[in-house]
């Protein structure tokens, strides 16, 4: 029938109940990895409510201060709206453009230009855009009455900048030349499923629990607590360095993986630089200025190993700190720096030096994070439990598994408001 479509479950038949093909019709995941979609799953943008997060680690503790968001799918999209105003950048200028009352200038971002827009040159001269030639990629700028525009030298693309001053209207005009519509940036992420367990033989666990002293029970409890700690580390690793993708498991199953903070920053082109320790204070301050998108006096967090934060503190304090004969303590560390427009709080992240969790580059890296831009997300809440062993509800298994599971991801808006430094000579 015209205008209708029959929904057919994915084949082979044993895959029709699979999460692989339970995707929205507009799913990025399905398109990238060749999986199916269904009209029965709505495209998800955002919803709210989350009620649990780990607190054993400073990074996750700070993260949990922001209300987590419950998603209605294991793939979600989110949108951010930028500044909405761009300078006009030149295309290649192979020959000088002479000073004149009207100039034709090659431009690389014509979408930023509009007719009857006043633009300002670097010397504060100004003119009005009176023509746009989309085919040639040029604009014509006419000087103010009785004035001339400054000469423009040979310039590589982007070296010559015109500021977008304002539109201008004449009395009696019957047309509008400058229309505005704000574009949005769409980002997406997957929610990763995680599970961890420890297995005890049915007789083994019974022996521990029946032991005459408390040692056996304490041993079991200590193991369970250690498993929880390792699970928190798993979540933290995803939070910092998870990569968006699909992985193949040992049984042939496919699973989604969530993208974390650092890969998102790399993908977005967040400000970063490689410096020496001697230059780290100035580089950090420049990084703060480059990433200032928030309100005046906002707070950002600088994550790094104890050694990295201490060495940066020394650069600020060692040569300028003076002591009296009665001083018994040399205070060389900093807890924060206040630059007026932004306060930077130092957060020890000693796990960056853990080779079992991060590559060696993280030992020499400090990450300046706009924490307000990062929102934890989940699909299924954290759950814990024990499987049934033999004799319980008819189970034949001669063991018991203690397990914990979770789903986890992040929504990272405007990663350009965060950045990182790699300190090359940090020992």
Report what the structure shows.
The structure is a single chain. The protein is an alpha+beta fold. The chain has three domains: 1-38, no CATH class; 44-81 and 185-321 and 330-427; 88-167, Elongation Factor Tu (Ef-tu), domain 3 (Beta Barrel). Helix content is 19%, strand content 28%. The chain contains seven helices and 21 strands. The strands form five sheets. The protein has a six-stranded antiparallel β-sheet, with no helix packed on it. The protein has a six-stranded mixed β-sheet with strand order 13-21-17-14-16-15. Strands 1, 10, 18, 19 and 20 form a five-stranded mixed β-sheet that branches. The longest helix is centred in the middle third of the chain and has 27 residues, at 215-241. The radius of gyration is 29 Å and the shape is elongated. The N and C termini lie far apart (71 Å). Mean pLDDT is 83; it is low at 1-17 and 40-56.
Order of helices and strands: HHEEEEEEEEEEHHEEHEHEHEEEEEEE
Number of strands: 21
3D shape: elongated
Provide the domain count.
3
Fraction of residues in H or I helices: 10-25%
Taking Cα atoms only, what radius of gyration do you get, to the nearest Å? 29 Å
Question: What's the number of helices?
Answer: 7
What is the mean predicted local confidence, pLDDT?
83
Strands in their spatial order, largest beta sheet: 3-8-5-6-7-4
Low-confidence residue ranges: 1-17, 40-56
